Amino acid sequence: MELARRVAHMCGTGGNGWELLIRARGMIAAGEPVTMLSIGEPDHKTDPMILAAMAQSAASGHTGYTEIQGIRALREEIAARVTARTGVPTGPEHVLVTPGGQAALFTAHQLLLDPGDAGLFIAPYYATYPGTIRAAGAEAREVVALPQDGFQPKAAAIRAAAPGAKTLLINSPNNPTGVVYTPETIADIAAACEAEDLWLISDEVYETQVWEGPALSPRALPGMAERTVVLGSLSKSHAMTGSRIGWMIAPEAVVQAGFELALNSTYGVPGFIQDAALFALRRGASFEAAVAAPFRRRREIVRRVLGQVPGLRLIPPSGAMYAMLDIRETGLSGAAFASRLLDEEKICVMPGESFGAPAAGHLRIALTLEDAALEAALIRLRDFAAALLR
């Protein structure tokens, strides 16, 4: 008996990028003290008031089946939030609630790609991006954004990769680089999508973590709302990673197709989690700013500790909860450096190679420790690199 080839095709041949993280977790389980700067998990937990709203909803009986596309009140709240932030009129008919941003990403590619198509994505990329494209039976095709361009993708590279493609996936603020795409870059991306007749999938889960902006949603540009699918989530904006609650903003026909997919897969999101999400969103922009504030502070810490070190180059983090560090002058690959850093200093970071070839020779550092512990770990990392450079 053989398994279907679908998952093997989805995973590809390059691994899933999590090998070092898995090794670090094994070390922790064995009792070794490891400092984790590897995964984008906020170090502060979900606000107790949100959890209380979730518990109250469950205790009140919202534990049965719900509207598969999402409860009406939550979709209205998400739509109003998008309208206010982008200026694009958005209604509940444009919203599909999903079990987290990852499910929204998977859904978008299932709806827009057929076997034999190609889906484009910008490299460096979040580790699951190519897998969600291949899961639709499509070819996952990289568009390279280069370090010397500040990891800003270029329209010419998109257009060169476009023949045979139907979608382009972008992410700004960006994981892993911490880069925010400039308005000029967003305009160039939109123009390339129109010229090549591409659907644009815009992953905006870090939209509340912008340190240098503006961060422009491409859906707001003229003519783009009808060809853009926006992915959102409460994981980062409200520290609700484990609640698995996100959404997709899209033309009504795409949302209706998403309803049909959810009907045959997830069958919706638990009602008590949706009620908690509604409560969280209604706490407003000031709450979101408070969740983001530690990462804004830590951006300054990483700039102070690593920003002026001879032989190292910090990619200026303009958004998200990460910093990207170029360590190529040490003579090591990102993978080799990160492996030695874990073995010798018990610090776990993600090697750039986990995010595609353009990030080779870099490290992604998650700013997910409290300030003093983060600064101490960064100093140890800096001194480790300095020893290699000598």
From TrEMBL:
Question: Might you give the EC number(s) for this enzyme?
Answer: 2.6.1.-
- Which Gene Ontology terms cover its molecular function? L-aspartate:2-oxoglutarate aminotransferase activity; pyridoxal phosphate binding
Catalytic reaction equation(s): L-aspartate + 2-oxoglutarate = oxaloacetate + L-glutamate
> Known SUPFAM superfamilies for this protein?
PLP-dependent transferases (SSF53383)
Q: What is this protein called?
A: Aminotransferase
What's in the keyword line of the UniProt record?
Answer: Aminotransferase, Pyridoxal phosphate, Transferase
- Gene Ontology biological process: amino acid metabolic process
Q: Name one Pfam family in it.
A: Aminotran_1_2
What domain of life does the native source organism fall in?
A: Bacteria
| Homology family | Belongs to the class-I pyridoxal-phosphate-dependent aminotransferase family.
* Cofactor or coenzyme needed: pyridoxal 5'-phosphate
Q: Where is the Aminotransferase class I/classII large domain?
A: 34-380
